[in-house]
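User: We ran a pulldown and think these components assemble together. Before we commit to crystallization trials, I'd like a predicted model of the whole complex to look at. Sequences follow.
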Amino acid sequence: MSRYFLRFGALGYLTLLLLMPVAFVFYKAFEHGFAPAWQAVTTPEALHALKLTLVVAAIAVPANTVVGIILALTLVRSRLPGRGVLNAIVDLPLALSPVVVGLSLVLFYGRGGWLGGLAGHGVHILFAVPGMVLATMFVSLPFVVREVVPVLREVGTEQEQAAETLGAGPFQTFRRITFPAIRWAVAYGVVLTTARAIGEFGAVSAVSGNIEGRTQTLPLYVKAQFDGFDTTGAYATSVVLALIAIAVVVGLRALHPKEESP
Amino acid sequence: MATDALALERPVRVGGYTAGSLARGVAMGYLSVVVLLPLAALVWSSRASGPAAFWSEVTRPEAVAALKLTLGVAAVCALVNAVAGTAIAWVLVRDRFRGKGIVDSVIDLPFALPTIVAGLTLLALYGPSGPFRIDVAFTRLGLLVALLFVTLPFVVRAVQPVLLELDKEMEEAAASLGARPIAIFRRIVFPNLLPAILSGVTLAFARAVGEFGAVVLISGNIPFKTEVSSVYIFGQLQAGNGTGAAAVSVLLLAISFGVLLAIGAFRRWRTRYDRV
Amino acid sequence: MKVIWIALAGVALLAGSASGASKGTSIDLVAYSTPKDAYGKIISAFQGTAVGNGVNVTQSYGASGDQARAVAAGQPADLVALSLDPDIDLLVQKKLVPKNWRSANKYHGIVSTSFVVFVVRDGNPKHIKGWADLVKPGVQVITPNPFTSGGARWNVMAAYGGLRRQGKSDKQAIKYLYKLFHHVPVQPASARDALTVFAQGKGDVLLTYQNEAIYAEKKGVHTEYHIPKATLLIETPVALTKTGLTKPAAKAFFKYLWSATAQHAFGDQGYQPVVKSVAASYHLNHVPGLFTIRSAKWGLNGWPKVNKRFFDPKKGVVAKIEASLGH
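Assistant: Here's a predicted model for the assembly, 865 residues in total across the polymer chains.
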């Protein structure tokens, strides 16, 4: 009985806050039919933006995943002093508004910044793809760590210790014992990281230069469409982003068939 | 499956001495280059004009009002998420209903959609022209709604993997001994979920503090009423007051850092009996 | 395994960054967002001319202030087309644009003009015709925040100048500004956001520019606008940067902006062309009571002084007005 109450409450909250907005986005994209939406997302600029978005995500997500797992293991298993501080630092990228992230990156890599001299030697970080990758890495850093840490704590170390005493090497232990225990957490971490990496607007916008056909990711392209009053196009492009995010979730779920809890 | 009470907490070597330290070194190096150094540049620039200028910037009435609003609404957002997110995760893992898979697949969408689209959608649905006759636009409630939207996945996705790994034996044992569902939840399930909930809460709080794109349209940016720090900082930057923008950013950063440290300490305190 | 992928990605990153050098006939245009369609047409036409043949023009559009700061931070730019002078002056300060950019040609670097108008609800139910009507009881005015939106500064100065033009003193005009802002229920971050908010049903009147209203109408967002009796001429500047001055193709493109074709492109999008022969075919040429940012008679003595007096983020008149909104 309480089960229905809970289900009703949760679904009600989700309907208002999630399902209606998502339905609205799809509705606005296809309001005038499938053809205008398709046209909007297959222009050369749109296709380039899609490619760029995927490239940036393909670099940022694996990097943050690997580093995230290592940081999580460090936070939970090691005896490193200052873990509390490290723990808080991991979340900081999120607490910064994109304006501030952009500002920090500009202050560091931009003209007159700490590494500003690089541009003079032909190494272009800002207003080029590397800057956008860095900005994306910055804002999508916390998720894998945050997902894995609680599960690692939950899981405990007995199995790993047992494996060690039985003579398993470090990578073996990780691959066969630790990783399977955290794989769901990693999966959800990857889902969140990917979603943020493909959807990030503010920070990437500040460092991309927004050069048409060169440094526009899909979110930047959406903004351009919106500025040009192409609302249908903007929503259609958002649908593309939504589909990528959904594909990642579905794909990960397919890779790890769930043990259905009765 | 809580940590074995008899096991001593020793560092488990993920790799042998060299491999483990190498991995950690790479991770720390990455963290420094990607996050810490740019932040250091920001902090440095806020110091550039001296402590007096820093202080005068952060004590301006509009800045203080924005700061209070930001922290307040972020706290409320985090709390609502703690409750709602846990409930949603529970329903997604333990419950069975038609369409569950679809719901599970779209939970992350608020996150994958660019913030402009989020803001526009919320304004269209829950603003003056909204089809449901709910108009929360340009109010603090509207601001909260926008923040709840973009932080939705955090607690849900943090609690889900823990729930999936949770061994149901204890709950079943308690039930067979006659405990009511609420008691089972409070005494057995909740303590195990707490670290995950707190993880999600820190993400939600952090995001709510830093959100710009999704709130800038629906909140109205009315100084002293619905203007959050991220918009205030943006305004100062656009107006040419880079020092002021950096100063307020650094203060907000410091406060957020403090809150995150506090939540971490709280978690350690609450789970102190799980460790030896 | 994963380490190898990361290493490869790192190599790709570096390769990608190193190959950013621009070729000989490539010029970089950095502009604010509204004239995008016009520039698209102009660039195609330019590439059809003898001097423009084979020239690649990269385009970047965004909010004027953001674009200025991006160029200041190192974004490559040969031409900057922004929405108001102070944004270009920022680049002069950073030594990226020559100090004498205004003397580039007889048009002082101004490539098109427009003016501040009132967008009202269909049929103008509240009969909003002049500046005095904006502060009638119950009237809600939408204007972007003057600090986040450089373009909103035109709105504020139009209001101030409008009052001065009607014979009010400086003190009275400033008092009016205080009153005006108390009629502003929301201050969207940009002009585009302001239009969205207004279109969604908030407010009775929107302060914007004629070209934005015309463009919106063209794109399907119905905007009924009214030109107030005394309004401010908006001048949109373009400048060649120091790097642009070294490229013949950039200089040719700059010159081309005042050609008949280019001016027609601006006119088609809702701007007022500045070249007299083209201007005659567009919109209204005679707006009664039109004044400029340099109309000293009405207390407007050019952007540098106006910016300092009104829009200094700490001591400016508008900063004080915003602070007063909390009480």
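The mean pLDDT of chain A is 89. That may be worth checking against your pulldown data before setting up trials.

User: Thanks, that helps.
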